[in-house]
Amino acid sequence: MVMMQEQSIPKWVELEEQRTRKRAEEKAKTYEERLEAGILSYEEICDHSRDKIEKMGLDRWAIGDDAALVDTKYGEHTMEDFARDIGGNKSTIAGYYRVSKFYPNIIRRKLLDNLPNLTYSHYKDALRLTDLDAAIAWLDEVAQAGWSPDKASYELTQRLGKDDDKPSPIPGKIERVDIWEGNMAMISISISMDDYEAVSKFIGSTISLKTKGL
Q1: What is the predicted pLDDT for the residue at 103?
Q2: 3-class DSSP assignment, residue 189
Q3: Tell me: the pLDDT tens digits for 136-184?
Q4: Distances from the Cα of 79 to the Cαs of 53, 95, 119, 193, in angstroms?
Q5: What is the pTM of this model?
Q6: Residue 46 region by backbone torsions, left for phi larger than 0, else alpha for psi between -120 and 50, else beta
Q7: Which helix (H) or strand (E) holds 177?
Q8: DSSP label at residue 76
Q9: What residue spans define the domains of the chain?
């Protein structure tokens, strides 16, 4: 049996990669340049969002983008860590995250440029459509009609035919269901950050469970 030796990366290749990274770090000065170069540290991301909050500008798009960056590139830090480290509310930051993630940067910039009369609340409410193309078409309709966030939300509710008495869907993945007496049950679920905001809407809802097959 012939044993294959694992080939190591030549030293000169490692040195060249180090020099390339160092040149990129030296050249990238602003937050955007360091983001583009992929050399942002977790602390820099926290400082960026903390600055937005402290200035009371509450640039929700920027904070949501930072939260998404932490979620995808800095797996050792949870959304709870990020919210705490920037002095924000966990549920609020999770909401910003969901909105930013729903609208990719390129599409978002076009929407913001072409529909200047819409507010962040308009974009957030359109997430109820769950489909990006449907949300874009709706936002265009809202902008043309000149509806306020409250008016647009009401019209979207009518359009969706939402029944407020209908039980909310269970967010996340059901891990375990313990049936108690009567119609009571204890449900253990695991959730991702995409499901986080839905939990607050889910808690307290009336849920009908079919016990067969659980």
Answers
A1: 95
A2: strand
A3: 999 999 999 999 989 999 999 999 985 444 555 555 666 666 655 555 6
A4: 16, 11, 25, 8
A5: 0.55
A6: alpha
A7: strand 173-179
A8: T
A9: 41-102, 104-162, 165-214
